[in-house]
Amino acid sequence: MIKYSNVAIVASFLGLWIASFFNHRSQIFVGFLLIFTFGILHGANDLLLIDKLIYKKKTNSRLKILLSYISVVLIGSLLFYIIPWVTLSAFVIVSGYHFGEQQWESLNKNSFKFLVEIFQLVYGLFILFLLFNFHSDEVQKIVLAITGVNFPSFFIPLFLKIFGAIFIVLGLYFLSIQVIAIRTFITEIFYLVVFTIIFKSSSLIWGFSLYFVLWHSLPSIIDQIKFVYGYFSLTNFISYFKSALIYWIASLLGISILYLVFKDEKIFNALFFSFLASITFPHVFVVTKMFNRK
Fold it and tell me: Residue 252: CB partners within 8 Å, gap ≥ 6?
């Protein structure tokens, strides 16, 4: 993981350098392209993970699981329409936990399960609000398009400070009881500095795509391949890709239809994040089960 982090750091700054040659619309296009490839791919193999978790290969069992999974996605989409503000808040919270869990998946939950989960949650939320803080005007427009609510701008820096303070306090506590090594904690603080530079120097979509793909999706794919096949290799990645292909294509078709119907940038951004939220809810549950099994 340390070797991959070095690659991710270099790729992140390379991404910033490449973005300097793009205008705003080009950054959005390339950013969405990255999200649609590795970003969507990392959540397209949940059924394979479920098979591994429950050790069932019967066709009828897989059909029930598929229908249940689709039902959760549809319910999430429906809730965005019925109670958008509540559902969007839930999406941010769940996404924050998911990001924090991936970044700190090596933490032992046996003795401090609740505190570790709070730590992972506030870390992920800190990253999200760090991104929001540098692009608050654009975030407000997207939230307004989704929910119809124009929230006060001071909420973002306020929550950023709260999550940052909780993260530092819990981090220092875990250091004192040796749950986290001092080298690991310092390294993660350095990564936060890297994220700050990325988010401040790029547009909302470009900054999100760099983090989402390089720091979340690709490490998640590596962990999923190790969980399913025992180790990571090019052969196992190809097997993973083949297994996810049909669900990945279905997701891309859904997003393409959204784009064709709603070409307005503000409306599409809102619908895209709504779609992303709907497929995130069941994915987070599956990945959490995977980490618990590991």
Answer: 36, 40
Structure tokens at 131: 């991104």
Which among 288, 261, 256, 258 is positioned nearest to 271, based on CA atoms? Answer: 258
> Which among 86, 122, 73 is positioned nearest to 281, based on CA atoms?
73
Per-run averaged pLDDT (10 residues), the chain, 294 residues:
80 89 82 84 80 61 68 73 83 91 82 88 96 92 82 90 96 91 92 94 91 92 90 91 84 73 61 69 82 76
Q: Exposure of 288 by Cβ count < 10 A (0-12 exposed, 13-18 middle, 19+ buried)?
A: middle
Listed as own residue / partner, the contacts of 151-154 with beta carbons closer than 8 Å and 24 or more positions apart are none
- Alpha-carbon span 188 to 107, nearest angstrom: 13
Entry pTM: 0.86
Task: Give the integer Cα–Cα distance in Å for 221 and 272.
Answer: 22
How far is residue 196's CA from residue 219's CA, in Å, rounded to a whole number? 20
